[in-house]
Amino acid sequence: MNLERNSASIVEAIDAGLLAGAVTLVWHAGEVVQVNELGYRDVDARLPMQRDTIFRIASMTKPVTVAAAMSLIEQGKLALTDRVATWLPELADMRVLAEPRGPLDHTVPAQRHITVEDLMTHRSGLAYMFSVLGPLADAYRRLPTRQDQDRWLTELAVLPLAHQPGERLTYSHATDVLGIALSRIEGKPLSDVLTERILGPLGMSDTGFSVGPTGRRRAATMYSLDSDNTLRHDVMGPAPIVDPPFCLGGAGLWSTADDYLRFARMLLAGGTFDGVRVLSEESVRLMRTDRLTDEQKRQDFLGAPFWIGRGFGLNLSVVTDTARSRQLFGPGGLGSFSWPGAYGTWWQADPSADVILVYLIQNLPNLTVDAAAAIAGNTSLAKLQSAQPKFVRRTYEALDL
């Protein structure tokens, strides 16, 4: 097994000035077989990436929040079919846009209530500012998350849904809403709920909504690419020492490669880690089982044909057709599951090969349609866009999978 070549594409992106650095991890058959520490976590200070560097993991937060919700479901505190308005009365009488890009006051009533499962599968009709168009996108853009969760939810609930609950998948703030529900059910901040139910039992001591004073020294700096394809430094400020007033269950966690490996190993093993049962086998099975209809899979995800050869469980992408998935997304056996983060973070657990890969970088994307078109025609950015897929393909080749 020769894994040395799997980092070449990442090094090329770093040398081209498109990426500050990365940490990657390969786990196979019960052991970590490789960790790459590449480039810098802070270019100006010449601080190198290290195995224990802490990253903003963005939407990799979502499966963790869902796992905590499954823990509550096991105790009978909620169910997938429950109306979320039971705990979030702000969402009791929702309206739906009559036309996708139409005015916000041109609506029809929601045909049914939003359920817990709708939130976990992004079929609630909620959205992100970059997942819809027109006036609704503008309204989401004006919705600040730097406020307490109750005020934020009140402002969110005023907005119409993008479509009828259950109708289709629209990537959204749904997991942030789920986090508020968990907080209200348990009567404590979401950070405490996640720590008690998932992070603590798994020993994920470097994962949370803040990093503390010592963790700040290990935190990776966030970068973005300017219009001339040069890295702009520190575009998000320092890592928070204390938790924010609103802990975003869909995007707010910081973590390390080894910590997230623990979470992925628990899901791969059917709910246990090092002899500790965190979730039931049934909860993990539900998370890892495709729930989309054939019609829903025909609809693009963020403008891309994401569901070719794969489906969606409870906030986990799941490979359902190995050959078709491999053509678009690279290696991953039947039942492989993953969910990425907006800043370039990614992971995958493959039960057929007993492999887990973790890939962590910190690049803030430009999520506009115009930016996507520019990236598609920019050959220099190809080095950055292809770094992660090449890392995955070369890792599978080296492991002879």
Automatic annotation (TrEMBL):
Domain Beta-lactamase-related residues, every copy: 17-373
Gene3D superfamilies: DD-peptidase/beta-lactamase superfamily
PANTHER family, per the entry: BETA-LACTAMASE FAMILY PROTEIN (AFU_ORTHOLOGUE AFUA_5G07500), BETA-LACTAMASE-RELATED
Name by which UniProt lists this protein: Beta-lactamase-related domain-containing protein
Organism encoding this protein: Mycolicibacterium vanbaalenii
